[in-house]
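User: Here's a structure from my thesis project, written as structure tokens. My advisor, Dr. K., wants to see whether a designed sequence matches the one we expressed. Can you design one independently, without my sequence as a hint?
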């Protein structure tokens, strides 16, 4: 599909809910290029490209604030590698921290599973009891 999209057509083409597009509008990431005679929002192919970029960036770990920085630099042009390097480094540090947290969660869950395997099926689950105690 090319040309102009209504919000529902754009959402379908981008594979996201219309509510997400409305949210992106509110935070300034995307905006309709015009209105139809029936006063429906109209979007262009450029909006579709932008939505796909936003989703790809989020999948890579970038936040919506990061996406704003990746879309435009301070002068309104495309950012340079030098201007986004710090942002990429921050995301890498955050990813490393989350990986460390996930490795800890994995160890805890493996230990809990081993404990469950040693107990009788009718015994009180000490893992769940521990979670209730906090």
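Assistant: Designed independently from the structure alone:
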């Amino acid at each position: 599909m090319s040309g102009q999209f209504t919000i529902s057509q754009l959402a379908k083409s981008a594979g996201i809910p219309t509510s997400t597009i409305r949210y992106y509008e509110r935070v300034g990431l995307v905006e309709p290029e015009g209105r139809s005679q029936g006063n429906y929002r109209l979007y262009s192919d450029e909006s579709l490209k932008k939505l796909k970029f936003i989703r790809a960036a989020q999948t890579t770990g970038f936040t919506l604030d990061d996406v704003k920085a990746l879309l435009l630099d301070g002068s309104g042009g495309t950012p340079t590698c030098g201007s986004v390097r710090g942002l990429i480094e921050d995301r890498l540090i955050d990813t490393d921290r989350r990986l460390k947290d996930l490795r800890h969660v994995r160890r805890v869950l493996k230990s809990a599973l081993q404990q469950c395997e040693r107990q009788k099926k009718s015994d009180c689950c000490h893992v769940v009891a521990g979670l209730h105690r906090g």
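When you compare it with your expressed construct, this may help: Residues 25 and 31 are 5 Å apart (CA to CA).
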